[in-house]
Amino acid sequence: MTEMTKELTPRRPPGRRRSPHTPPRPRGRPRARARAGPAGRAPPPPAPPRPARGSHGARPRPAPSSPPPRPLANMALVPCQVLRVAILLSYCSILCNYKAIEMPSHQTYGGSWKFLTFIDLVIQAVFFGICVLTDLSSLLTRGSGNQEQERQLKKLISLRDWMLAVLAFPVGVFVVAVFWIIYAYDREMIYPKLLDNFIPGWLNHGMHTTVLPFILIEMRTSHHAYPSRSSGLAAICTFSVGYILWVCWVHHVTGMWVYPFLEHIGPGARILFFGSTTILMNFLYLLGEVLNSYIWDTQRKPPSWQDT
User: Fold this and answer.
1) Which stretches does UniProt call biased (Basic and acidic residues) (predicted)?
2) Model confidence over 228-264: pLDDT tens digits?
3) Nearest CA among 80, 102, 83, 103 for reference residue 91
């Protein structure tokens, strides 16, 4: 009986016997071991917990994001237009105050038109008047889809660009540079102290100083397409020679030179001076062309006429 009981009792498979000092395994669900990833890497981090649902079982909505900022390209047009209007009004004020001055030279042959400073003021006022007219036409025709209005607008823009390239920039820079160079050397040669009794200081700077920053601001705020170099140089040479002939004609009629320093130099020096001024005008035209290309990088991407 005892032998039969031993045969029916299941035997433990041969193997390692448990040591009497080994603690017994805890009962219950065995704990899962963290398996290492491939090549011994650490296991991936646990997934983030899901957001808690609200009282009605719906997930909380994220906070609404702020709307993207509006582009500033169209907003920058209004200050430029207002700036052109302000410059135009300043030139009109300067011209009105200058014409209101009763000077002896204004009563002689040629009046104010024999001075290049006055001619330059008229050029700048007409140029900025065309700029303001172009801005108004651009605002009225934008989005209309009228081909005829767009064609007329292109012609107006071409006139504006031509006038800046040929007259406004070279003549304006020439007046400012030559006046202050001669003024620093000897003011009696170009602007005698007697004129201080007629022309106030602010008006003098309005005629001979602010012209340069105004024209540079215009070049920076709006792209201008220059004409071909040959036609541009021909136009500025025609203006220079025409004004020199006009000055000589005034001297022939009145017997006096428009500018006092021409009285103190000989005929050869006058010819050299007139030739140098013509060359300087051509150089200023090329300088304006290079400056316009540098500001707007026209060789890489020429702006369209609609960007004015």
Assistant:
1) 1-10
2) 999 999 999 999 999 999 999 999 999 989 988 888 8
3) 83
